[in-house]
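Database export, one record per block. Field names are fixed; values are copied verbatim from the stored entry.
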Amino acid sequence: MKTLKLIIILLLLSTTLFAQLNSLNIYNVKDFGATGDGNRLETEALQKAIDFCSVSGGTVYFPSGKYLTGSLLLKSNVSIYLSAGAIILGSTNIADYNEFIPQMKSYNDAFLKHSIFYAERAENISIRGEGTIDGQGSAFKVTTREKPERYKNRPYVIRFVECKNVKIEDVTMQNSAMWMQQYLACEDLFIRGIRVYNHANQNNDMMDIDGCKNVIISDCIGDTDDDGITLKSTSFSITENVVITNCVISSHCNALKLGTESHGGFRNISISNIVVKPSNDTEPIYGHPKGISGITLGMVDGGILEGVTISNIRIEGTHVPIYMRLGNRARKFYDDQPEPGVGIFKDVIISNVIATNVQSPIGCSITGIPGHYVENVSLNNISIEFPGGGSIEDANKILPELENHYPESTKWGNLPSFGLFIRHSENINLNNVELRLKNSDARPAIIADDVKEIKITGLKTDSDLQAKKVISFHNVRDGIIESSSLLSNANTFLEITGNQTKNITVINNVLLKAKRIIDNRSKTKVKESGNIK
């Protein structure tokens, strides 16, 4: 009798609690048949909770437990809340995932069909809480290198398309079979306080913000095999009005990246207060143990990149700290699309960057292609310590244009300069840039080739007596070097070549460590004054 009374009391309490939660529009997934035992596939119960919640709006609550699931369709006015100890496990059977083909076209249509959470044209949706989403992505083996087949049948953790007012907060995400999360053409997107660990498979990006507008990403920590925080434009939608701040990123590939797809482009992007550090995983599937690049801006499929500010960045490791590229791969994202033209790359400011423990002698670069310039770029208060090791052969390299190549910072190998290689560019400003060498290097610090309007102010740079010059101007129009100095002994400070070179000014530099200030092989007129030799 006592046992029966206890059961009745518990049932009444459970019923009362269910009623109270319903009155607050909080729906516990266990009230819809989920067990949380981690063994039984619970897609049906979880979707039932989402569907029920969507009628009046509210929160679908996951108490502590393990929930094995395939695809879940998130609907408007539904918030997913994962309590501490709640783990959503992605099924390891591709048959448990639905194929979602969005109405809008993008480059991803050929392969991006499966995900744990999917939403399209939904509003007021969120995934929040202290719990974890685990894609169990190592179960999805890649059996071919052929595109797009190698990307198929690998579920993402999150894919939201053309959604509005989206919040992803505090959750931990790990082990996706492909990219961790993609937001395509979403509006008013907020990602805050999440933790991502993604080393389960190929293409393990941290997040991909694709053609979205009005985006704030803050206070996140990510460690990924592939790219970290990645802005893309795989359709004609421009990724614009984006703020990224206060994050710690580790990547075997590119920590901060705009591109490679750029069909619509990027506009009004602000990135600040980021630490880029080596991954805790020392065995990469892609890339390098300590990363390929810290900052990559790659425009090769048309579109426009303008109004990008990047500041207060600390980079430890990576092979290339800063890489900027305007190319012309011109890849289509559907067959009857007109071929994209060459994109526009302009108005970029990168400030307050410290990079140490650089992993290779490649060097940084800012490059356009003949007739299409990277425009209006400023590097301010930049300090980079390079490893050295460049040879005389590297210094004499003639770099091919490779304008239709994938924009990767390592594609040329070692550049002809150890610090900055600048080509096909206009209105470049280097202010208080410091380029240091740990070991000897036979290359100049800076090469400017086919550059209109370059101003170098307050440069401090190492050199090496193996190197014939510190700075090389080839076909530079309107170049100024002022208030700069050398950190080590050097041969010629500035070598000038090219029959298009004109209007060069070298003033007020402290060059006590240089054997010669200028070697003018172009015979152009040079204004020189106030230099201390």
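Remark 1: The mean pLDDT is 94.
Remark 2: The two ends are 103 Å apart (CA to CA).
End of record.
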